[in-house]
Each structure stands twice: as C-alpha cells, then as structure tokens.
Amino acid sequence: MLSVAEWTQLSYLGQLHSFRAKSAEPEFDGSSSFTAVPLSLLTAEKEEAKAVLSLFLRKLGLSSAVAARTIKKSEYFIEHLISRLHSVHKSRYLVGRELTTLEIRDALVPYLESLLDEHGDVLVDVVENFPNPPGRERPTISTPPTTSSLSSKKVKAIARVSELGSDGQLPAHILYLIELGLDMDQIKKMARKFPAFAYYSLDGKIKPVVELFLDLGIPRSEIPGILFRRPQLCGISLSENLKPTMTYLESLGVDKEKWAKVIYRFPAVLTYSRQKVKISVDFFSELGLSAESIGKVLTRCPHIISYSVEDKLKPTAAYFRSLGVDVALLLHRSPQTFGLSIEANLKPVTQFFLDRGFNIEEVGTMISRYGALYTFSLADNLIPKWEFFQSIDYPRSELVKFPQYFGYSLEERIKPRFERVRDLGVEVLLNQVLSTSDAELEKVLEKKAKKMTEGVLPPTLTDFDALQVESEMKDLKL
C-alpha cells in the first residue's frame, strides 16, 4: 500500500496538473518550461483516460455498470492519470503535438497494471478513494463529482459540434462529416458517446482516417456508418499506431485484400492493443488452430478479438467440450458461436434437442457439423422447423447427419421442396432435397420417379448412407 507521504505527493501532482492546465506563466528565469494544455484538449484527454480506465476495470471482471459507477466516483484519480500522462509525454506537449488514443492507452495501461500488482483486490477502493488511502475520509473541502457535473461534459461536447462560428458556419470538421454523409443527430450521438470526438481536428485526425479507408477500398457510402460506430478511430495516429496495427494483424494471417470487409464488420479491431490481440491468438493456438486458420477466423469474424479469453472464450470452449465437440474445428467453421451466452443461448438449444430424444453425442455431432445451429431462435426457427420435420416422416437420424436443415427458410425452401417430393411419392435424402439447386433436384426427382415407374425398388438405407457420405465429402471439398 502507498504511504501517507506518497498519497500526499500524488495528490500534489493532481493539483499541480490542474494549475498548469489553467496557467502558462514563465519560470522566474523568463523561460517557459511547460506549455499550457488547451482546455479543449484537456477535456478530450480526460474522456480518453476514462475510457482506458473503464476498459481496464472491465477486464478485471467488473460489469460495465459497476465500472461506470467507479469512474463516476474517481474524479481525483482521473486527474492524477492526466497528470501522469503529461509527465510521461512532456516533450510532446512542449512541441505542441497532441497525443493519439493509443499513445494515451500505452502510457496509462502499464501504470494501472502496476497498481493492480501492488494493491490487488482493493484496487477499486484505491481508485475511488484517491488521494486518500482506503478507509480514510476524503477532505471535507472536496466534493465528489456529481452525475450532473459528469453529464455536463457530454453537454459541452454536443454544444461544440453544433455551435456556429463568427462566420455563421459550423466547425470545419462538422461540415466535412455532414458532406461525408453523417447527419447532425448522428454527430451529436457520437459526441455524447465519446466526447473527445467533438474536439478532433479535421486535417490532423478525421480526414487522414477517411482517406485511408477510401484507399483500402471501403465505399464512401459505408464510411459514415463506420465512424458512427467507432469515432475513436479518428484519434489514432496513422503512422505510429493504426498502420502498424494493420501490419501486425496481417502478420497473424488477416487477409490484407479484405481490409474493407474486416473494418466494415468490426471497426474497433484497429483500436485494440497488440497485447489484447496476442492473448486471443495464443488461446486460439492452444485450442489447436493452425496459423492459417487463425488468420481466416480473424478475417471472417474480427469481433472475436473483443471477447474476453477468461470470461467468454474459455468457458464457451469448455461447454462445447462437454458435448464432445471438436472445439478447434467449431471455432474455425463458426467463430460467431463463441460470442453467444452459455445460459441464454447455448444451454436452451441443447436442452431443446435433448427434450426431443437426441442424446448428448448426437447434439455434439450436430453442432460439430453446423455451428450456426446455436444462433437460431427457438420460437422463430427451431420449434416450427422441428414440427414440420415430424410431418415429413424422416428418421431423426437425418437431422444428426444434416443439421443444416435448420438453416433453410421454412416457407421459401423447405415446405415447397418437400411438397414436390411428396407429390411424386419418391424418397430423397434430406441433404439432397435442400442443398441442391432447383435444376439438380428436378433431375434427381425425375430419375427416381422413372425408376419407380419401371418397377425398380427405391435405394436401400445403405445406399442412402453412401449418398450422404458422398454429399458431405463434396461439401468439405467446397
């Protein structure tokens, strides 16, 4: 634990930072050793420091709501973080260069980790009670920030993006965003969600990111949506952070020809630290995925990086193992399945099939063959399709062989095709009825109808199994 003297010193640093932010008076020798931080930049830095602290607390296992409450109680600690940031990057401020989002994160995260190592489980108390050790009362002259004072920063950010200048025009970066395709309501929501965005410069932050996206092949029409979902992207330095992050992800196998799709699917992928990405990638390797497979997973499902390894990926992998599923294969085929809730999504679907006579091994086989099975709604998908399946007189084992049945539209594909099969009175594999094209299905149906007319017996069950295996082999080759 910090001594009283150390806490006093930290408190002094926070007060010193506050003083320096308001004044830039020269030293007694006539030289200025510290450049004043503009109020707008100071506001933006505080919002980004809060975002870093919130993410750090959530990685420790706190819910978003608890982390938000902690930050509301920690105005003094936020001031201290900004003071530390200015101390670490003093030379940057002397030349007037503002820090990027990742530079702020890289300066603060190691410090937060050192505090965690020192204080362990009482870190939250340390943060909330700063600059006093846990257990001591705050100075009576100090008043903790109220919800209204914190909300006022969002109000100021919203006012910043909508205020007219002396020329009667909106700020240049706002006009640029409107021309790009964002409307004022969207811009205000961005400022409310991430107040620092209101203070980003046009030429220094926003325009370079937009031009990069255009160079990557992202349609201009899609860029407003990307910025709306992740305004923090505009706070990242292209040369020092964003492009190196892209290079690093490419080294892990992300297809550089598909950056447009990757960024559109999950813009936040470019804002994660290498450490966070490496933790996820190392876990994928532990599961048995090859480097090539990891690259494909990151390309197809970049948002998997946002999942906590300890809180999300490991428990989900353990659950699938309990069903006998090859977890590495499932992750390769259906990475989105690992974002589902075990209690709200996985267990209810498993129970649905158990209640209908399937055993654990069969459920495991079905999910191994078709991971998307767990993404379907019980009420809107699984139940009505199961009820229809019972009406077509197929053995339950056909669903174990071909769980993809649940992925087809009941009204547009399943019912019309089985009505055609029923009209002809022939027997066709579940797989063939649904997975073939209209023309191919007609050929199969005509062939079987002709054999029945000629008195040739329909294929035996062994023949059905052989055709099923042949069909699955073709799917794997595709």
From TrEMBL:
<comment type="similarity">
    <text>Belongs to the mTERF family.</text>
</comment>
<keyword id="KW-0806">Transcription termination</keyword>
<keyword id="KW-0805">Transcription regulation</keyword>
<dbReference type="Pfam" id="PF02536">
    <property type="entry name" value="mTERF"/>
</dbReference>
<keyword id="KW-0804">Transcription</keyword>
<keyword id="KW-0809">Transit peptide</keyword>
<dbReference type="GO" id="GO:0003676">
    <property type="term" value="F:nucleic acid binding"/>
</dbReference>
<dbReference type="InterPro" id="IPR038538">
    <property type="entry name" value="MTERF_sf"/>
</dbReference>
<dbReference type="InterPro" id="IPR003690">
    <property type="entry name" value="MTERF"/>
</dbReference>
<dbReference type="GO" id="GO:0006353">
    <property type="term" value="P:DNA-templated transcription termination"/>
</dbReference>
<protein>
    <submittedName>
        <fullName>Uncharacterized protein</fullName>
    </submittedName>
</protein>
